[in-house]
Amino acid sequence: MASSQEKISVYNLADLKNTTDDAIPNYLNSLHFTQSHRLTDVRLALGYSALALAAACFAWDHHLGFAATTHLTACAVALYTVLNGALTAWMLFAERGAVYEGSAPGPGAGGQGERVRIATATPRRNVPVYEMVVEVVGRDGARTTARVSRGFAEWFDGAGRFVAAPFQEVLASAVPVIGRADPKRAVVKVEGEDAAAAYTPEMLDMLARASAAGSAAETATPSGNGGAKRGGRRRKA
């Protein structure tokens, strides 16, 4: 997807971050990266276990009465505390703000290359700066870390629409494994200049309008082709 037609408030830092976070797996999966859902699966397992325990506690208290289930309720409260503590620890020490884990495409059919982990944050309150920590583990076990800090204005236009191309260029230019998978987006760094150009709101508006016009042209009915519609498939960001 070259740009999103959904608009968000450019003054809402949480919306800016969440929209950008959602674009990362869309972009990398479109490059044939293989996403791992391990972190999410463990979080869901812990959360649903705690919820099931609370529901069971309510059910036996409702049917048997509080006095008859005092010991069960005490055990359930203790176990619920353990589960929530484990969930909190998992989010703080295992996830560490990660929004993506996966593997780059490797040589051969179905081969897997480097493992990629991307954690994001907006550390400064009311400052529209997006920070990414990208950890790459090579097939030989070597680990490299890239830190990227950019303003949201580089890939959101003035109306609050997400424009994918500038954001993809930031990732492809800062992380070599992504740049190799999408060389068209990788911007060669010139000495004394930033790796990716700073996009002004006017430039982003032009990109968004061009994307919308391109989408309309792809779905338009050609005159003289018997009314047959011709559609184009676009890679999602």
TrEMBL record:
Main location as per UniProt: endoplasmic reticulum
Name of the protein this chain belongs to: Signal peptidase complex subunit 2
Keyword annotations from UniProtKB, A to Z: Endoplasmic reticulum, Membrane, Transmembrane, Transmembrane helix
Pfam family, one: SPC25
GO cellular component labels: signal peptidase complex
Function description: Component of the signal peptidase complex (SPC) which catalyzes the cleavage of N-terminal signal sequences from nascent proteins as they are translocated into the lumen of the endoplasmic reticulum. Enhances the enzymatic activity of SPC and facilitates the interactions between different components of the translocation site.
Family membership: Belongs to the SPCS2 family.
Topological type in the membrane: Multi-pass membrane protein
Disordered: region residues: 211-237
Parts of the chain that traverse the membrane: 42-60, 72-93
BP term (GO), one: signal peptide processing
InterPro entries membership: Spc2/SPCS2
Subcellular location: Endoplasmic reticulum membrane
Compositional bias ranges of the Low complexity kind: 211-221
